[in-house]
Design goal:
37% of the residues lie in helices and 19% in strands. It is α/β, with parallel strands linked by helices. The strands form two sheets. A nine-stranded mixed beta sheet has the order 4-3-5-2-1-6-10-11-9, with helices on both faces. A two-stranded antiparallel sheet has the order 7-8. It is globular and about 50 Å long.
């Protein structure tokens, strides 16, 4: 088996990665599929941290449309990410991968509170660490939480796993002429207002010179190939 070129990675997953065919809820088989992919990557050598969203359980904009306060909607979303983290942790441990779930909102009965040095120690011991509850603050997306945690744990790369095989200049699902970028600069990604990541996450990575890799989680072996240095997806960098 090949060896990964990265020492430590932060993998950002949308909550939809755990959803069933209708895009909602938690499908245990989906959790098992993702756990198998993470296990394969872990076996290549890199330490793996994960940030997961909660869009399969709650969409804050639906609450906002009914007059809900933004902070309340965001906190509900954070709780959804904890549920997803527990489901993924369970699937990973059933696959034989020692895992720790850490949450930015303290709930000691189900997960460890997020402490940067403790998270780093878990990674050094070979455990997969799942970061839940975003940054712990409203008004920030889980993309931004992923970028922040990647910086805090000194990850080599921030991997945004999506259902699209990279960054395009238009939506490839609706525009057959959309052009895929192999690489794109942080500034270009911001100026083009590409929707693959929010601007705060891109800016944070740019300020700290952390490369972003955007790839399709469901393309066979793409994640593993990328970890071994093959040209997969799109790199957002200098």
């Amino acid at each position: 088996m090949s060896t990964a070129i990265y020492r430590r990675i932060l993998l950002k997953l949308g909550g939809e990665a755990l959803a069933g065919n209708d895009g909602h809820g938690i499908d245990p088989s989906q959790a098992e599929d993702i756990a198998a992919k993470i296990k394969t990557v872990r076996e290549l050598g890199p330490e793996v941290a994960v940030v997961i969203g909660g869009g399969n359980l709650w969409r804050g904009r639906e609450g906002l449309e009914h007059g809900m306060e933004r902070a309340t909607a965001d906190y509900i979303g954070m709780l959804g990410t904890v549920m997803n983290a527990l489901a993924l942790q369970d699937a990973l441990e059933r696959a034989g991968v020692v895992t720790r779930a850490m949450t930015a909102l303290e709930m000691r009965a189900v997960a460890e509170p997020y402490i940067r040095r403790r998270a780093t120690r878990h990674l050094e011991k070979g455990r997969v660490v799942i970061f839940a509850a975003g940054t712990g603050n409203p008004y920030f997306t889980t993309d931004t939480a992923g970028a922040l945690r990647a910086m805090e744990i000194d990850a080599d790369i921030f991997v945004k796993a999506t259902k699209v095989d990279g960054v395009y200049d238009a939506d490839p699902k609706t525009n057959p002429d959309a052009r895929k970028f192999e690489t794109i600069s942080y500034i270009d990604a911001l100026n083009r207002r590409l929707k693959v990541l929010d601007s705060t996450a891109i800016s944070l990575c740019m300020d700290n010179n952390l490369p972003i890799l955007v790839l399709d989680l469901w393309n066979k072996d793409d994640l593993v190939r990328a970890m071994c240095g093959e040209a997969v997806g799109t790199i957002i960098g200098k």
